[in-house]
Amino acid sequence: MRLRGAWAHEADALAAVHATAFGQGWSAAEIAALVDGPGGFALLVEDEVPLGFILCRALAGEAEILTLAVVPAARRRGLGRALVEAAAGAAALAGAEALFLEVAEDNPAALDLYRGAGFAVVGARRGYYAREGGTAADAVVMRRELGPSPLSTYPGEANE
Ligand SMILES: CC(C)(COP(=O)(O)OP(=O)(O)OC[C@H]1O[C@@H](n2cnc3c(N)ncnc32)[C@H](O)[C@@H]1OP(=O)(O)O)[C@@H](O)C(=O)NCCC(=O)NCCS
């Protein structure tokens, strides 16, 4: 098993994973545009076949998890947590000081994962996710501090 960066030309594989995790998955074209867009990056866990991925954006000192998906057969083995931790590390290297995300209030698995990974609730968006039957679920906005960039503690930078 390995965790690595994934690229826009792999968007078909990422979209296939996304479709197993969400009723209405994102298309390969949408995913490719986000990976290639400003600050976009994706990380993939695979074991011969793709098992899960995380898609993020790091821009202007802040980063955001845009989506996270693990195929049903590979869940509860720590892959989701590993992807979040790797994304936090990559976002910090890209200069982000905080990592944000939005998660549906009716998604206890993801809420548990994010709480366990050090995210705190900082807001909500009412009726953000459409649900069957014309109802809607709120989005919970969460944030995790990433700490200063590794360069800010580099001795040569300290007195500048
Ligand atoms: C949410 C998701 C990514 C979790 O992936 P995963 O690889 O199973 O997660 P992990 O095994 O790393 O679990 C880490 C922690 O998250 C929590 N968690 C994960 N699945 C859970 C579940 N079904 N019920 C309750 N808590 C759960 C637990 O706290 C777990 O720690 P533990 O196993 O030590 O108890 C996966 O269930 C998924 O793809 N769901 C559909 C898509 C989705 O909801 N994405 C997130 C919103 S953007």
Task: Give a summary of the structure in a few sentences.
This protein has 160 residues and is of the alpha+beta class. It has helices at 11-21, 28-36, 79-93, 108-116; strands at 2-6, 40-47, 49-59, 62-70, 98-104, 120-130, 136-145.
Summary keywords:
160 residues, alpha+beta, Aminopeptidase, seven-stranded mixed β-sheet, globular, binds coenzyme A
Plain-language structure description:
- There is one protein chain.
- With 160 residues, this protein is an alpha+beta fold.
- The protein has one domain (2-157): Aminopeptidase, CATH 3.40.630.
- Helices cover 28% and strands 38% of the residues.
- Strands 1-2-3-4-5-7-6 form a 7-stranded mixed beta sheet, sandwiched between helices.
- Helix 1 (11-21) crosses helix 2.
- The longest helix is centred in the middle third of the chain and has 15 residues, at 79-93.
- The model has no long low-confidence stretch (mean pLDDT 93).
- The structure holds coenzyme A (COA).
- Coenzyme A (COA) binds next to strand 4, helix 3 and helix 4.
Rg over CA atoms, rounded to whole Å, is 16 Å
CATH uppermost class:
Alpha Beta
What is the fold-level CATH name, i.e. the topology? Aminopeptidase
Q: How would the global form be characterised?
A: globular
Strand order of the largest sheet: 1-2-3-4-5-7-6
Oligomeric state, counting identical vs distinct chains: single chain
Number of helical elements: 4
Q: How helix-rich are the residues, as a percent range?
A: 25-40%
Number of domains: 1
| Stretches with pLDDT under 50, minimum 5 residues | none
CATH architecture annotation name:
3-Layer(aba) Sandwich
Strand content: 35-45%
Helix/strand/pairing category: alpha+beta
Largest sheet: 7 strands, mixed
On the 0 to 100 scale, the average pLDDT is 93
List the ligand species: coenzyme A
The CA-CA distance between the termini, in Å, is 43 Å
Order of helices and strands: EHHEEEHEHEE
Q: What's the total number of strands?
A: 7
Fourth CATH level, the homologous superfamily: Gcn5-related N-acetyltransferase (GNAT)
